[in-house]
Amino acid sequence: MAEVRSVSVKDIEEAVYKLALEAAYHIPEDVLEAEKKAYEKEKSPVAKQVLETIFQNIEVSSKEEFPLCQDTGLAVIFLEVGQDVHFTDGYVVDAINKGVERAYKDGYLRKSTCHPLTRENYGNNLPTVVHTFVVPGNKVKIIFDAKGGGSESMSKVQMLKPADGRDGIIQTVVDWVIQAGPNPCPPVIVGVGIGGDFERAAVMAKHATLRHVGKPSDDPVLAEMEQEILEKVNNSGIGPAGLGGLTTCLGVHIEMEPCHIATLPLGINIACHVNRHKEIEL
Amino acid sequence: MAEYKLKTPLTDEDIIQLKAGDKVYLSGVLYTARDAAHMRMVKALDEGKELPFDIKGQVIYYVGPSPARPGKPIGSAGPTTSYRMNPFAPRLISLGQKGMIGKGKMSDEVKQACIKYKACYFVSIGGAAAVVGSAVKEAEIIAYPELGPEAVRRLVVEGMPLFVCYDAHGNDLYETAKKEWANKYSLG
């Protein structure tokens, strides 16, 4: 047991505020590195041109604090709370929402949340989607993910049959990403969640998109599946922005959990080439 | 793959010369509209009312820009996913719209409308919004301000770089580019 520690939710609000702004303007280092590597390998002149524009965009955004993409996303947070943390000064989810609201206003970020039926825009980008996990210790880890609608719309959960197995999973993911084609802004990062149940598969898939790009799974079986999916997707020819080439996908990341004997849940979440996320531990 | 500099409003002649894969630097006035604005425009037509702008020869940019910083005409402004406009685009094309700018695939009905009425679907690079948005020199909301980022804006652009995706001859850049580069990754 760690010693019980008090954490003011005001510090959480401030951290979320900073993470949201940083994610909007500055691409994660690992994503840029993966894109540079892909550029070296790329043979299509048009694809090279597209990647050059992407690099130029990263530079302009970072220098002038212009959002990398006009769609600054739905704010998604993976919140890992140590069980020995005691929050003070208010309710932690309210603090997260305050941080998001302030960042989207002060940073000239687009507010994209709306009523699902009337489509009326709420004008504050709230509520934040918060996935909370209780973990050992007395620290708080906040992973902020600005998830754009274009790539998010190309996601799905499918309940496969247990007999579909490894090859069925690979085929389903590859077919789905190729069918999505240019829509989710390739080169993409594909997050896959295998097992758990219906909603766990989806949460794992989204969490997987935030792994260091191209870092293989610790599980050698999954690492091999990741590589096979990556090669098949990149062999599709879709290319950066869908204009043809070798770089459709920068990385495939799989997470897996046990599931019910009668099920084989599969979650697929696609992140675009800006894959904006930042994290901090308090 | 040719390069063209074009100015809106576009004519049949402008469109006919274009082939899928050509690069176009577009200047002049563009109008922005996304799903919510398209729904309202089509409703207006159904009720016998006028569109918020004269659509003949015009190009609609599918974009929901981020807010402008003080002193700038617009924030980041890259293309949004176009298939959401599939139900509306053919009707507007039949009324004289000459082009759409977005990203991602559109429907066969849109392709057919491009052939029948001589129009063109342009794509630009999704996500590269700070760079694409820098082609915008002026921006003004002209309809549905309550839609916020989805309001209809009149933009003045200079040399906006675009690729011709669906031309008026039935070609599709996404399909041809994909075929050309398929099965080459392992060789790359």
UniProtKB/TrEMBL annotation, chain A:
Please give the Pfam families that the UniProt record associates with this protein.
Fumerase (PF05681)
- Outline the extent of the Fe-S hydro-lyase tartrate dehydratase alpha-type catalytic domain: 14-280
EC assignment: the record states 4.2.1.2
Q: Does the keyword NADP apply?
A: no
The keyword ATP-binding appears for this protein:
no
Q: Name one GO molecular function term.
A: metal ion binding
Q: Mind telling me which InterPro entries this protein's record contains?
A: Class-I_Fumarase/Tartrate_DH, Fe-S_hydro-lyase_TtdA-typ_cat
Which keywords belong to this entry? 4Fe-4S, Iron, Iron-sulfur, Lyase, Metal-binding
Family per similarity comment: Belongs to the class-I fumarase family.
Q: Which NCBIfam families match?
A: PRK06246.1, ttdA_fumA_fumB
Name of this protein: Hydro-lyase, Fe-S type, tartrate/fumarate subfamily, alpha subunit
UniProtKB/TrEMBL annotation, chain B:
Q: Can you tell me where the transmembrane regions are?
A: none
Enzyme class, spelled out: lyase
Q: In terms of domain of life, where is this protein from? A: Bacteria
- Has keyword Disulfide bond? no
Question: Domain named Fe-S hydro-lyase tartrate dehydratase beta-type catalytic: which ranges?
Answer: 5-176
Q: Which UniProt keywords apply?
A: Lyase
Q: Where is the signal peptide?
A: none
Molecular function terms, GO-annotated:
fumarate hydratase activity
Enzyme Commission (EC) number: 4.2.1.2
By sequence similarity, the record places it as follows: Belongs to the class-I fumarase family.
Q: What name has this protein been given in UniProt?
A: Hydro-lyase, Fe-S type, tartrate/fumarate subfamily, beta subunit
- Tell me the organism: Hippea maritima (strain ATCC 700847 / DSM 10411 / MH2)
Recite the lineage of the species.
Answer: Bacteria, Pseudomonadati, Campylobacterota, Desulfurellia, Desulfurellales
